[in-house]
Amino acid sequence: MTAAGWTRRLPWVAVEVLESIYQHRLLSTVQVHAIHTPDASRRWTQRLLGELAGSGLLDVARGPRTVGVWFVTEAGAAAVEQVTSRTEPRRKLITPAQAAGQLQAHTLAVNEVGIAYLHAARQRGDEFGPLSWRHEIAHTIGTAPGRRGSTEQVIADALISYLAADADAVTQHQRFLELDRGTMPVEALLGKLRGYQRLRDYTPPPGGRHGGAPEPAWRTWYPSGLPAVQLVFAGKPRPQLERRAQLLLALRAADPALRGDRTLRVQLTLLEDLSRHGPFAPIWLRAEDPTARVDWLGKPKGARR
Q1: Are 38 and 78 in contact (CB under 8 A)?
Q2: For strand 68-72 and strand 151-165, is the pairing parallel, antiparallel, or unpaired?
Q3: What is the pLDDT of residue 187?
Q4: Which residues touch 184 (CB under 8 Å, ≥6 apart)?
């Protein structure tokens, strides 16, 4: 039986789970339960995942404390592409070695950020679903220094797209996510911020049939405005993460290109705080003005929304 044939025998929630794991590369059993089956028992979710694995659509690696970490197989990816309307290129599949290796902790942490937004949207009645964060979003930022003809990119760990509804309107908020687990020098994080600054300023060479003044390339994808950059720290004891965030702020303040730049919005928080309190709590520091904590929309504690 083909992979698509297997999906026709499964409940629709199983197809949604399969597409979600395809999109998010790796999800733990706990994460699948939080995203897709919060009203069911954990055991029911485990049985569902086991059925998908038994159908050859998923495979499992072991995570912290032997928790199952799920990823799609070739057959699972083919099934998703056959039964869903996808216009994007096929996502790069995770190998069993990657699923059990260093990539695991980083990917699961990125998905924890998405789940924090998902919980908030459910509580508030906003629009943010299982596919509202997308991994590894790349943008060209110009020619690589010293490599004529070779382009350079800035690659966000994820892009978050959130629709907030109120009595008068629906507003789309987007954020570039950088998930830092303390595995790279803080100077490298500063380099990522410079990359986003170059993305803000990058204008493609003139060409094409249409006239008019050239404009930054990002406007093609983000007509409402360049997303702010969210730096979320995880993977180390809290004091180390707080020192790391403060060191990054100090380096940014000393950087001639970045200091005083208030147009590139940068927000910092700890994953521990984001998971516990949600994005609408005043847990964020703004790199442009780190004197007070705000929510992810830049509003201080107690401000009306």
Answers
A1: no
A2: unpaired
A3: 95
A4: none
Verdict on whether the full-model pTM lies above 0.70: yes
Distance CA 59, CA 50 (A): 9
Token digits of residue 29: 């059993």
Q: Where exactly are the structural domains of the chain?
A: 3-93, 104-294
Are β-strands 266-270 and 68-72 bridged in parallel, bridged antiparallel, or unpaired? unpaired
Displacement of CA 239 from its chain's centroid (Å): 24
Report the candidate in 103, 84, 81 with the shortest Cα–Cα distance to residue 12: 84
CATH of domain 3-93: 1.10.10.10
pLDDT digits (tens, 9 = 90+) for 242-262: 999 999 999 999 999 898 888
